[in-house]
Amino acid sequence: MTGVVPPEPTIQTLSPFETGPDTPAGRWLRAFWQPVFRSEDLPAGVAKPITIMSEDFTLYRGEEGTAVVTQALCPHRLTKLSIGTVEGDSLRCKFHGWKYGPDGQCTEAPLQGENLIRRIRLTTYPVTEIYGLIFVYFGDGDAPPFPDIEKFSREHGHDMMSAPLVFNRVYRRYCNYYINTENTIDHAHVPYTHAISANPTLTKVGFSPDLAVVRDITVERLPYGVRVVDTDDGQHANSAVLLPNVMHLQVGQRIGWLENLSWRVPIDDESHRTFSIEAIHTDEEGAKVWRERQAQLQHEVAKYPLTEDIAEMIIRGEKTLMDFVDHPRLANIEDALTQQAMRFITDADRQNLAQSDKGVLQLRRMFMSRLADFIAGDPSATVSW
Ligand code: FES
Ligand SMILES: [Fe+2]
Questions:
Q1: Which of 66, 78, 134, 281 sits in a 20 to 30 Å window from 312, CA-based?
Q2: Domain limits for position 58
Protein backbone atom coordinates (compact mmCIF):
# COMPACT_ATOMS: atom_id res chain seq x y z
CA MET A 1 0.00 0.00 0.00
CA THR A 2 1.36 3.41 -0.88
CA GLY A 3 1.49 6.26 1.62
CA VAL A 4 -1.05 9.02 1.43
CA VAL A 5 0.34 12.07 -0.35
CA PRO A 6 -0.60 15.17 1.61
CA PRO A 7 -2.66 17.58 -0.47
CA GLU A 8 -0.89 20.63 -1.91
CA PRO A 9 -1.29 23.53 0.51
CA THR A 10 -3.79 26.12 -0.67
CA ILE A 11 -4.36 29.65 0.46
CA GLN A 12 -7.11 28.20 2.64
CA THR A 13 -4.98 25.56 4.36
CA LEU A 14 -1.79 27.62 4.69
CA SER A 15 -3.37 30.98 5.22
CA PRO A 16 -1.30 34.19 5.14
CA PHE A 17 -4.27 35.95 6.72
CA GLU A 18 -4.33 34.37 10.17
CA THR A 19 -1.53 35.42 12.52
CA GLY A 20 -2.67 34.44 16.03
CA PRO A 21 -0.02 32.80 18.25
CA ASP A 22 -0.47 29.21 17.05
CA THR A 23 -1.11 29.81 13.36
CA PRO A 24 1.51 28.98 10.69
CA ALA A 25 1.75 32.56 9.35
CA GLY A 26 1.68 33.94 12.90
CA ARG A 27 4.64 31.81 13.86
CA TRP A 28 6.48 32.84 10.69
CA LEU A 29 5.93 36.58 11.23
CA ARG A 30 7.10 36.18 14.83
CA ALA A 31 10.41 34.79 13.54
CA PHE A 32 11.27 38.31 12.24
CA TRP A 33 11.85 41.63 14.02
CA GLN A 34 8.57 43.57 13.89
CA PRO A 35 8.10 47.28 14.59
CA VAL A 36 5.51 48.00 17.27
CA PHE A 37 5.76 51.75 17.97
CA ARG A 38 7.28 54.93 16.65
CA SER A 39 10.10 56.12 18.94
CA GLU A 40 8.92 59.73 19.03
CA ASP A 41 5.50 58.61 20.31
CA LEU A 42 6.93 57.02 23.49
CA PRO A 43 8.39 59.53 25.94
CA ALA A 44 10.62 58.41 28.83
CA GLY A 45 8.67 57.27 31.89
CA VAL A 46 5.56 56.24 29.95
CA ALA A 47 3.92 52.78 29.64
CA LYS A 48 1.51 51.78 26.86
CA PRO A 49 -0.60 48.73 26.09
CA ILE A 50 0.10 47.25 22.65
CA THR A 51 -1.58 44.45 20.72
CA ILE A 52 0.45 42.60 18.12
CA MET A 53 -0.82 39.59 16.19
CA SER A 54 -3.80 39.15 18.55
CA GLU A 55 -1.63 39.14 21.70
CA ASP A 56 -1.44 41.90 24.29
CA PHE A 57 1.84 43.26 25.69
CA THR A 58 3.13 46.15 27.75
CA LEU A 59 5.59 48.60 26.25
CA TYR A 60 7.34 51.19 28.43
CA ARG A 61 10.30 53.50 28.27
CA GLY A 62 12.47 53.71 31.36
CA GLU A 63 13.44 57.12 32.68
CA GLU A 64 16.91 56.67 31.18
CA GLY A 65 15.36 56.06 27.77
CA THR A 66 15.46 52.28 27.23
CA ALA A 67 12.33 50.71 25.73
CA VAL A 68 11.10 47.46 27.32
CA VAL A 69 8.38 45.03 26.20
CA THR A 70 6.82 42.63 28.68
CA GLN A 71 3.77 40.45 29.00
CA ALA A 72 0.51 42.39 29.36
CA LEU A 73 -0.70 41.35 32.79
CA CYS A 74 0.74 41.52 36.28
CA PRO A 75 1.31 37.96 37.54
CA HIS A 76 -0.16 38.89 40.93
CA ARG A 77 -3.85 39.43 40.15
CA LEU A 78 -3.65 39.96 36.38
CA THR A 79 -4.39 43.64 36.00
CA LYS A 80 -2.76 45.45 33.07
CA LEU A 81 0.84 46.47 33.72
CA SER A 82 0.45 49.30 31.19
CA ILE A 83 -1.56 51.28 33.78
CA GLY A 84 1.42 51.04 36.14
CA THR A 85 4.14 53.60 36.82
CA VAL A 86 7.69 53.69 35.50
CA GLU A 87 10.34 54.07 38.21
CA GLY A 88 13.88 54.36 36.86
CA ASP A 89 14.17 51.48 34.39
CA SER A 90 11.51 49.42 36.25
CA LEU A 91 7.73 49.20 36.10
CA ARG A 92 5.55 49.18 39.22
CA CYS A 93 2.07 47.66 39.04
CA LYS A 94 -0.68 50.13 39.85
CA PHE A 95 -2.77 47.65 41.84
CA HIS A 96 -0.62 46.50 44.77
CA GLY A 97 2.76 47.91 43.85
CA TRP A 98 4.75 44.87 42.79
CA LYS A 99 7.79 46.14 40.92
CA TYR A 100 9.61 44.57 37.94
CA GLY A 101 13.04 45.30 36.48
CA PRO A 102 13.68 45.62 32.71
CA ASP A 103 14.62 41.92 32.61
CA GLY A 104 11.15 41.11 34.02
CA GLN A 105 12.43 40.03 37.44
CA CYS A 106 10.20 41.02 40.36
CA THR A 107 12.30 43.17 42.68
CA GLU A 108 9.73 44.35 45.20
CA ALA A 109 6.35 43.09 46.41
CA PRO A 110 5.09 44.86 49.50
CA LEU A 111 4.32 42.50 52.43
CA GLN A 112 5.54 39.42 50.49
CA GLY A 113 8.46 37.15 51.40
CA GLU A 114 11.80 37.06 49.55
CA ASN A 115 11.00 33.62 48.13
CA LEU A 116 7.94 34.78 46.31
CA ILE A 117 9.72 37.87 44.98
CA ARG A 118 12.52 35.71 43.59
CA ARG A 119 10.04 33.35 41.94
CA ILE A 120 8.04 35.99 40.08
CA ARG A 121 9.32 37.09 36.69
CA LEU A 122 7.60 38.64 33.69
CA THR A 123 8.18 37.39 30.18
CA THR A 124 10.12 40.07 28.31
CA TYR A 125 11.02 40.34 24.63
CA PRO A 126 14.17 41.51 22.82
CA VAL A 127 13.89 45.14 21.68
CA THR A 128 15.92 47.07 19.09
CA GLU A 129 15.28 50.74 18.61
CA ILE A 130 16.58 51.98 15.29
CA TYR A 131 15.67 54.38 12.46
CA GLY A 132 12.97 55.97 14.62
CA LEU A 133 11.07 52.74 15.30
CA ILE A 134 10.88 50.27 18.18
CA PHE A 135 11.29 46.71 16.89
CA VAL A 136 10.52 43.60 18.95
CA TYR A 137 11.31 39.94 18.46
CA PHE A 138 8.36 37.75 19.52
CA GLY A 139 9.69 34.44 18.18
CA ASP A 140 11.21 31.40 19.82
CA GLY A 141 14.88 31.17 20.79
CA ASP A 142 17.44 33.89 20.24
CA ALA A 143 16.55 36.93 18.16
CA PRO A 144 17.93 36.88 14.62
CA PRO A 145 20.35 39.58 13.44
CA PHE A 146 18.61 42.83 12.57
CA PRO A 147 18.31 43.24 8.78
CA ASP A 148 20.96 45.47 7.24
CA ILE A 149 18.57 48.09 5.92
CA GLU A 150 21.28 50.48 4.76
CA LYS A 151 23.02 47.82 2.69
CA PHE A 152 19.70 46.68 1.23
CA SER A 153 18.88 50.21 0.18
CA ARG A 154 22.33 50.80 -1.30
CA GLU A 155 22.02 47.64 -3.36
CA HIS A 156 18.32 47.73 -4.30
CA GLY A 157 17.24 51.31 -3.80
CA HIS A 158 18.71 54.79 -3.64
CA ASP A 159 20.78 54.64 -0.43
CA MET A 160 17.90 55.96 1.62
CA MET A 161 19.87 56.91 4.72
CA SER A 162 21.83 59.46 2.68
CA ALA A 163 18.68 61.32 1.64
CA PRO A 164 18.13 64.83 3.04
CA LEU A 165 14.67 63.81 4.26
CA VAL A 166 14.30 60.60 6.27
CA PHE A 167 11.23 60.23 8.45
CA ASN A 168 8.75 57.75 9.89
CA ARG A 169 5.05 57.32 9.48
CA VAL A 170 2.57 55.12 11.27
CA TYR A 171 -1.07 54.53 10.47
CA ARG A 172 -3.73 51.97 11.29
CA ARG A 173 -6.17 50.24 8.97
CA TYR A 174 -9.18 48.17 9.92
CA CYS A 175 -8.29 45.28 7.65
CA ASN A 176 -6.07 42.25 7.54
CA TYR A 177 -2.36 43.06 7.17
CA TYR A 178 -2.01 40.81 4.12
CA ILE A 179 -4.53 42.85 2.11
CA ASN A 180 -2.22 45.84 2.44
CA THR A 181 0.89 43.68 1.89
CA GLU A 182 -0.31 42.53 -1.50
CA ASN A 183 -1.56 46.00 -2.41
CA THR A 184 2.14 46.88 -2.73
CA ILE A 185 2.44 44.99 -5.99
CA ASP A 186 -1.09 45.62 -7.25
CA HIS A 187 -0.31 48.56 -9.54
CA ALA A 188 -3.62 48.02 -11.37
CA HIS A 189 -5.52 49.60 -8.48
CA VAL A 190 -3.90 53.01 -8.84
CA PRO A 191 -5.92 54.57 -11.74
CA TYR A 192 -9.22 53.58 -10.10
CA THR A 193 -8.67 53.58 -6.35
CA HIS A 194 -6.81 56.89 -6.66
CA ALA A 195 -8.93 58.42 -9.44
CA ILE A 196 -9.77 61.47 -7.32
CA SER A 197 -6.41 62.11 -5.67
CA ALA A 198 -4.66 61.77 -9.04
CA ASN A 199 -6.99 64.25 -10.73
CA PRO A 200 -5.50 67.76 -10.49
CA THR A 201 -8.81 69.37 -11.40
CA LEU A 202 -10.35 67.88 -8.23
CA THR A 203 -7.48 67.89 -5.74
CA LYS A 204 -4.44 70.02 -4.91
CA VAL A 205 -2.23 67.24 -3.49
CA GLY A 206 -1.99 63.55 -4.29
CA PHE A 207 -0.69 61.22 -6.94
CA SER A 208 0.81 62.71 -10.03
CA PRO A 209 -1.66 62.06 -12.90
CA ASP A 210 1.14 60.30 -14.72
CA LEU A 211 1.15 57.53 -12.11
CA ALA A 212 -2.54 56.83 -12.40
CA VAL A 213 -2.34 55.31 -15.85
CA VAL A 214 -3.10 51.68 -16.62
CA ARG A 215 0.24 50.05 -17.41
CA ASP A 216 1.26 46.47 -17.78
CA ILE A 217 3.70 45.18 -15.19
CA THR A 218 6.69 42.89 -15.09
CA VAL A 219 6.80 40.56 -12.13
CA GLU A 220 10.23 39.57 -10.86
CA ARG A 221 10.65 36.73 -8.41
CA LEU A 222 13.38 37.56 -5.90
CA PRO A 223 15.14 35.28 -3.40
CA TYR A 224 13.24 37.07 -0.63
CA GLY A 225 9.99 38.23 -2.28
CA VAL A 226 8.40 39.62 -5.41
CA ARG A 227 9.09 42.88 -7.21
CA VAL A 228 6.80 44.55 -9.72
CA VAL A 229 8.02 47.11 -12.25
CA ASP A 230 5.94 49.09 -14.71
CA THR A 231 6.62 47.58 -18.11
CA ASP A 232 6.96 50.76 -20.14
CA ASP A 233 10.11 52.15 -18.54
CA GLY A 234 10.04 51.40 -14.81
CA GLN A 235 10.48 55.10 -14.17
CA HIS A 236 7.16 55.64 -12.43
CA ALA A 237 7.21 53.11 -9.65
CA ASN A 238 8.71 49.85 -8.68
CA SER A 239 7.64 48.03 -5.61
CA ALA A 240 8.48 44.82 -3.86
CA VAL A 241 7.17 42.70 -1.04
CA LEU A 242 10.05 41.47 1.11
CA LEU A 243 8.63 38.40 2.75
CA PRO A 244 6.82 38.03 4.91
CA ASN A 245 5.32 41.51 5.50
CA VAL A 246 7.54 44.37 4.32
CA MET A 247 7.02 46.72 1.39
CA HIS A 248 9.90 48.32 -0.48
CA LEU A 249 8.55 51.07 -2.71
CA GLN A 250 10.37 53.49 -4.97
CA VAL A 251 8.34 56.10 -6.71
CA GLY A 252 8.89 59.42 -8.45
CA GLN A 253 7.23 62.34 -6.70
CA ARG A 254 6.89 66.00 -7.51
CA ILE A 255 9.77 67.00 -5.18
CA GLY A 256 12.06 64.01 -5.77
CA TRP A 257 12.42 60.25 -5.63
CA LEU A 258 10.70 58.55 -2.68
CA GLU A 259 11.93 55.33 -1.14
CA ASN A 260 9.77 53.65 1.46
CA LEU A 261 10.20 50.58 3.65
CA SER A 262 6.94 49.68 5.36
CA TRP A 263 6.13 46.87 7.74
CA ARG A 264 2.48 45.72 7.80
CA VAL A 265 2.10 44.54 11.37
CA PRO A 266 -1.11 42.76 12.42
CA ILE A 267 -2.90 44.11 15.48
CA ASP A 268 -5.30 41.23 15.06
CA ASP A 269 -6.64 39.51 11.95
CA GLU A 270 -8.99 42.41 11.13
CA SER A 271 -6.67 45.36 11.71
CA HIS A 272 -3.03 46.26 11.30
CA ARG A 273 -0.58 49.13 11.52
CA THR A 274 1.91 50.22 8.94
CA PHE A 275 5.24 51.45 10.29
CA SER A 276 7.43 53.06 7.70
CA ILE A 277 10.86 54.51 7.16
CA GLU A 278 10.65 56.91 4.25
CA ALA A 279 13.33 58.87 2.45
CA ILE A 280 13.00 61.56 -0.20
CA HIS A 281 15.96 62.29 -2.43
CA THR A 282 15.60 65.95 -3.18
CA ASP A 283 17.65 69.15 -3.09
CA GLU A 284 17.91 71.71 -0.26
CA GLU A 285 15.04 73.73 -1.60
CA GLY A 286 12.83 70.60 -1.93
CA ALA A 287 13.63 69.59 1.66
CA LYS A 288 12.77 73.07 2.92
CA VAL A 289 9.45 73.11 1.06
CA TRP A 290 8.63 69.63 2.38
CA ARG A 291 9.34 70.56 6.03
CA GLU A 292 7.20 73.67 5.82
CA ARG A 293 4.42 71.73 4.16
CA GLN A 294 4.52 69.02 6.89
CA ALA A 295 3.84 71.47 9.69
CA GLN A 296 0.86 72.85 7.82
CA LEU A 297 -0.30 69.37 6.88
CA GLN A 298 -0.38 68.15 10.51
CA HIS A 299 -2.59 71.10 11.31
CA GLU A 300 -4.98 70.35 8.44
CA VAL A 301 -5.16 66.60 9.14
CA ALA A 302 -6.03 67.31 12.80
CA LYS A 303 -9.31 68.87 11.68
CA TYR A 304 -10.60 65.52 10.40
CA PRO A 305 -11.46 62.17 12.01
CA LEU A 306 -8.73 59.53 11.65
CA THR A 307 -8.23 58.25 8.11
CA GLU A 308 -9.38 54.75 9.03
CA ASP A 309 -12.56 56.16 10.60
CA ILE A 310 -13.29 58.28 7.52
CA ALA A 311 -13.04 55.12 5.39
CA GLU A 312 -15.57 53.42 7.68
CA MET A 313 -18.02 56.32 7.28
CA ILE A 314 -17.79 55.96 3.51
CA ILE A 315 -18.19 52.18 3.72
CA ARG A 316 -21.34 52.64 5.84
CA GLY A 317 -22.69 54.97 3.13
CA GLU A 318 -22.74 58.05 5.38
CA LYS A 319 -20.15 60.00 3.40
CA THR A 320 -18.45 59.85 0.00
CA LEU A 321 -14.84 60.40 -1.05
CA MET A 322 -15.91 63.70 -2.58
CA ASP A 323 -16.67 64.93 0.97
CA PHE A 324 -12.90 64.71 1.61
CA VAL A 325 -11.38 66.18 -1.57
CA ASP A 326 -9.55 68.76 0.55
CA HIS A 327 -8.05 66.19 2.90
CA PRO A 328 -4.25 66.33 2.49
CA ARG A 329 -4.03 62.55 2.81
CA LEU A 330 -6.82 61.67 0.41
CA ALA A 331 -4.68 58.99 -1.28
CA ASN A 332 -4.39 57.20 2.06
CA ILE A 333 -8.17 57.40 2.57
CA GLU A 334 -8.69 55.93 -0.91
CA ASP A 335 -6.48 52.95 -0.07
CA ALA A 336 -8.07 52.54 3.37
CA LEU A 337 -11.48 52.55 1.71
CA THR A 338 -10.88 49.71 -0.74
CA GLN A 339 -8.87 47.66 1.74
CA GLN A 340 -11.15 48.09 4.75
CA ALA A 341 -14.13 47.23 2.54
CA MET A 342 -12.50 43.77 2.33
CA ARG A 343 -11.60 43.67 6.05
CA PHE A 344 -10.63 40.00 6.18
CA ILE A 345 -10.53 37.43 3.41
CA THR A 346 -12.26 34.35 4.72
CA ASP A 347 -12.45 32.57 1.42
CA ALA A 348 -9.65 33.63 -0.92
CA ASP A 349 -10.58 30.85 -3.37
CA ARG A 350 -13.73 32.78 -4.26
CA GLN A 351 -11.67 35.63 -5.70
CA ASN A 352 -11.19 35.61 -9.47
CA LEU A 353 -7.55 36.55 -9.86
CA ALA A 354 -6.97 37.81 -13.40
CA GLN A 355 -4.16 38.90 -15.73
CA SER A 356 -3.54 42.15 -13.86
CA ASP A 357 -3.15 40.16 -10.63
CA LYS A 358 -0.08 38.29 -11.80
CA GLY A 359 2.05 39.96 -9.11
CA VAL A 360 -0.52 39.17 -6.42
CA LEU A 361 -0.71 35.56 -7.58
CA GLN A 362 3.08 35.18 -7.64
CA LEU A 363 3.31 36.63 -4.15
CA ARG A 364 0.65 34.28 -2.77
CA ARG A 365 2.46 31.30 -4.28
CA MET A 366 5.79 32.42 -2.89
CA PHE A 367 4.37 33.29 0.52
CA MET A 368 2.85 29.82 0.83
CA SER A 369 5.95 28.04 -0.41
CA ARG A 370 8.28 29.92 1.97
CA LEU A 371 5.79 29.44 4.80
CA ALA A 372 5.75 25.71 4.05
CA ASP A 373 9.58 25.78 4.16
CA PHE A 374 9.43 27.51 7.55
CA ILE A 375 6.99 24.94 8.93
CA ALA A 376 9.30 22.19 7.66
CA GLY A 377 12.17 23.76 9.64
CA ASP A 378 14.17 25.25 6.74
CA PRO A 379 16.40 27.91 8.39
CA SER A 380 16.61 29.92 5.15
CA ALA A 381 12.92 30.82 5.55
CA THR A 382 13.73 33.12 8.46
CA VAL A 383 16.60 35.01 6.84
CA SER A 384 15.68 38.64 6.19
CA TRP A 385 16.07 40.13 2.75
S1 FES B 1 -2.12 42.93 40.43
FE2 FES B 1 -0.20 43.78 40.19
S3 FES B 1 0.54 44.03 42.16
FE4 FES B 1 -1.41 43.15 42.45
FE1 LIG C 1 -2.95 52.77 -3.33
A1: 134
A2: 35-129
Assign residue 76 the CATH number of its domain: 2.102.10.10
pLDDT digits (tens, 9 = 90+) for 97-125: 999 999 999 999 999 999 999 999 999 99
Q: Is 324 in the pocket of ligand 1 (CB under 6 A)?
A: no
| H or E stretch at 107 | strand 106-108
Rounded distance between C-alpha atoms, residue 66 and residue 192, angstroms: 45
Choose which residue among 85, 93, 106, 120 to substitute to test ligand 1 binding: the one with the highest number of ligand atoms within 8 A of its C-beta: 93
| pTM for this model (two decimals) | 0.95
Residue 78 covered by a domain: yes
Q: What separation in Å is there between the alpha carbon of 271 and the centre of ligand 1?
A: 30
Tell me if 275 sits within 8 A of 35, measured CB to CB: yes
Query: Considering only CA atoms, which residue is closest to atom 1 of ligand 1?
Result: 77
d(CA 320, CA 306): 15
- Of the candidate ranges 68-82, 115-129, 253-267, 299-313, the one whose mean pLDDT is the lowest: 253-267
Query: Closest ligand 1 atom, CA of 78?
Result: 1
Q: What is the mean pLDDT of residues 151-170?
A: 96
- Take atom 3 of ligand 1 and give the residue whose Cα is closest: 96
Is 17 a domain residue? no
Last residue of a domain, one of 129, 160, 192: 129
In a domain, 234, yes or no: yes
Same structural domain for residues 122 and 153? no
